[in-house]
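CORE FACILITY INTAKE
Project code: CF-77B
Contact: R.S. (postdoc)
Sample description: multi-component assembly, two entities in total
Requested service: structural model of the whole complex
Turnaround: standard
Below are the sequence entries exactly as provided by the requester. Do not edit them.
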Amino acid sequence: KQEVTQIPAALSVPEGENLVLNCSFTDSAIYNLQWFRQDPGKGLTSLLLIQSSQREQTSGRLNASLDKSSGRSTLYIAASQPGDSATYLCAVLSLTGANNLFFGTGTRLTVIP
Amino acid sequence: DGGITQSPKYLFRKEGQNVTLSCEQNLNHDAMYWYRQDPGQGLRLIYYSQIVNDFQKGDIAEGYSVSREKKESFPLTVTSAQKNPTAFYLCASPHVTGNTIYFGEGSWLTVV
């Protein structure tokens, strides 16, 4: 069974810092990996989707990388802002299994003004 | 635009009552999932369905029931057997060939 882990569970940084969030998974047989943002009491907002054949995706100040062979993905946030404060989750869509959708437990990010 | 609609956004349940949360999608996706999220916690899988008229239990199915009579709809019933149902419930639907995972906006259920 696929297992998805996110480290750290929580992170506080001063405004303007660059930061990296980590996501690891145990089975490299995946369709894709997706990063989401969740604000308190809200649903999930898709940030970046990386297909299994891709190495990275970029959107604005966000860059997500995927190293399928090592089972790792990183979400890089440049020049962090207080508005980036949220919980960030990664999700893996596996190639096999009746249940093939797996989520990490998230990293709660706080950007301090 | 295609997406997932969850309703109601807020729901109050009296003890001993069954309540049903609606999840409707117009994405033409086969797979649909229900998750529960407690404050400050991750997502826990309740039930999932890969195709119409078929569904499987997730990690915390006790006290919940679902049906999948139509491709577009995957309602979740929180039964009186669920002793601690107060939580945030999310419906999701991935595309089978790996496009983006769609989420509904969630439903807050509170026991009063």
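Facility notes:
- Chain A has a mean pLDDT of 94.
- Chain A touches chain B through 24 residues (CB under 8 Å).
Invoice: internal transfer
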